[in-house]
């Protein structure tokens, strides 16, 4: 038995955190063409400083010169056996009720992310009942 694709969970990363929700809800809130739904990889560059290396304690020292390398970083999220982050209840135009999501990082940064990206007016509240929004739809 297969799971419908829109029912699967997706984690949308942003500066300072991430939000996890079902793919169907993400498509409805952000639009099916939202780049966060299929972010792809990002080129990263790493610079290594010159340093000395000793292979065996008391052995000779080898000098390693400075160098730079590049790699492709694909989107990741933290994983553990327990769920991480803060549970939020979201509602938006046409949602017909509250839906659960999970935010890692501060709720203020999540609010900034929603404010900059939602295609429908969105509100959410934390487990403690603090209400955030409304975040108006952007065009």
Report on the structure:
The protein is mainly β and 139 residues long. The chain has two domains: 5-40 and 79-135, no CATH class; 42-73, no CATH class. Helix content is 14%, strand content 42%. The chain is built from two helices and ten strands. The protein has a six-stranded antiparallel beta sheet with strand order 1-2-8-7-9-10, covered by helices on one side. Strand 4 and strand 5 (61-64) form a beta hairpin. The longest helix has 11 residues, at 107-117. The radius of gyration is 21 Å and the shape is elongated. The mean pLDDT is 87.
Could you list some keywords that capture this structure?
2 domains; two-stranded antiparallel sheet; 139 residues; 42% strand; single chain; mainly beta; six-stranded antiparallel beta sheet; 2 helices
């Amino acid at each position: 038995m297969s799971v419908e694709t829109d029912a699967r969970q997706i984690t949308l990363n942003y500066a300072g955190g991430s939000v996890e929700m079902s793919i169907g809800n993400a498509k409805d809130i952000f639009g099916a063409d939202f780049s966060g739904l299929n972010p792809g990889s990002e080129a990263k560059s790493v610079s290594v400083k010159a340093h000395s290396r000793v292979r065996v304690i008391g052995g000779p020292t080898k000098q390693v010169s400075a160098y730079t390398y590049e790699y492709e970083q694909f989107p990741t999220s933290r994983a553990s056996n327990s769920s991480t982050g803060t549970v939020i209840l979201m509602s938006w135009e046409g949602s017909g009720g509250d839906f659960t999501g999970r935010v890692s990082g501060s709720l203020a940064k999540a609010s900034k992310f929603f404010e900059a990206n939602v295609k429908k007016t969105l509100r959410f509240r934390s487990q403690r009942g603090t209400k955030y929004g409304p975040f108006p739809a952007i065009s």
